[in-house]
């Protein structure tokens, strides 16, 4: 084998190595991009699941609050009705008391 042929084989081997390194680098970049994409998809899926859970908890809390609000309003309406009823039953007594006080002051 001559010197020129050995140099030619070395150059060919170097070229093959360059091509292999370039292909390996492209493959690495592709795998890295795929990994980033998959990671982003997982993060987005986790965010969506978290958002869904938070929405469900918020809706449940809102329903519980509305139930409590209605109970408080019903209790308030019941108490207000009782006060109105008691006031109506006492209004006759109050009228007579005021009238008698007025008559007593007028007689004096």
- Please identify the structural class as seen in this structure: mainly alpha
- Give Rg in angstroms: 45 Å
Give the rounded overall mean pLDDT: 91
Strand content: under 5%
DSSP strand count: 0
Number of domains: 1
Account of the protein in words:
The structure is a single chain. By secondary structure, the chain is mainly alpha-helical. It has one domain. Helices cover 97% and strands 0% of the residues. It has 1 helix and no strands. The protein has one helix spanning 3-107. The model has no long low-confidence stretch (mean pLDDT 91).
Summarize, please:
The chain has 108 residues and is an all-alpha fold.
Features:
97% helix, mainly alpha, 108 residues
Explain the layout of strands and helices.
Layout: H1 3-107
